[in-house]
Amino acid sequence: MKKNTFKKMAGIAAIMMSAGIFAGCSTATTKSEGNTATGNTIKIGVNMELSGSAAGYGQQQKQGIQLAVNQINKDGGVKVDGKKKKIKLVVRDNKTSTSTSASVAAQLVNNDKVSAIVGPATTNAGTAEIPTITKAKVPSVSPSATDPDYTLKKNGKVQPYVFRACYQNNFQGSTAAKFTYNTLKAKNVAILTDNSSDYGTGLTKAFKKTYKGKVVSSQTFQEGDKDFNAILTAIKNKKIDAIYAPGYYSEIGLIIKQARQMGINVPIVGSDGMADPKLAQIAGDKNASKVYYTTPFSTTVAEKSKTAKKFMAAYKARYHAEAPTFSALAYDSVYMIKDAIEKENSTNSVKIAKGLAKTKNFDGVTGTITVDKKHDANKPIAVEQLTNGKVSASTEVK
Predict the structure, then answer these.
(1) In order of start, what are the domains of the chain with their CATH numbers?
(2) What distance lies between CA 124 and its chain's CA centroid?
(3) How confident is the model over 218-252, as pLDDT tens digits?
């Protein structure tokens, strides 16, 4: 090889190495910066179950999100650096699919360049987006992912960009256990568990850990089941004072209906997945009596709060219906992000995450919210009672 040729190749190699170093620096810098809004708008993404098995929850949450954004923009927007910026929603449907949720998250953070995300509604869909939002350093607030480990890594450390506006299952399950034993005076219960989801199994585990009475029968079912006669027959002749059946309205509504048709008339206690008008539609109004469920939002309890009353009035004016739990949770999720932006005086996604972690005594429609070190929302919990398909009573449990 000639000397001049060697020099030329060495020079080219040096340039390529230099370019590679600079490119590497550029990539690292971009990665550390996260997403920052430009212009007069702040993009907030919505990764939501708008179709599929959890669409009932997702559609309610979309309504709450839109209501919050409309109100914020009507009031001038979000204050940053002394100026008001409007929120622009980027709404995408994850179709109640984990693979789609991951894809939606990638589109929102990489293509749409959102500063924060609201959703998903379910723990499984929410978990699927975590690797993507963590890499992009964009925070996500789930209105209703209740699995205790949702906000945590496998080593127990908190996921830095994962938050929720709801409480987790341990709190909800233990509250149901205390209510069943202390208020309903039920000393013997049967438990019917949806063992196809972490939601159902987690709630059952928490209930059993706290319940002071006797569990005389434990039965399981799967998401999508329609016929529950076999598991109900197994408990019909047991001496039970109540049934604990944590799950979603689609299956629990049928369980209530078939239990009442079979002559099982003991109280049925469940979880926030039942907090939907469709429960009574499926069960039948007459059958939906002596039914109780834990919920982060009760319209009866909320009447004591000016913030909640304002939300309920606005919801009814826009959607011509009573505000459901999942709309309230989603509404709070948006305002938590607004609060974080204004607290940090920044639309940068990394700083918004820091602001969310500092949330304390936030006046939400679902109660006063403080985000703890695990990124869980510490807040009040209530138990609602259904009589003939309507909420007849509610109690805030402290």
Answers:
(1) 41-166+303-380 (3.40.50.2300), 170-295 (3.40.50.2300)
(2) 11
(3) 999 999 999 999 999 999 999 999 999 999 999 99
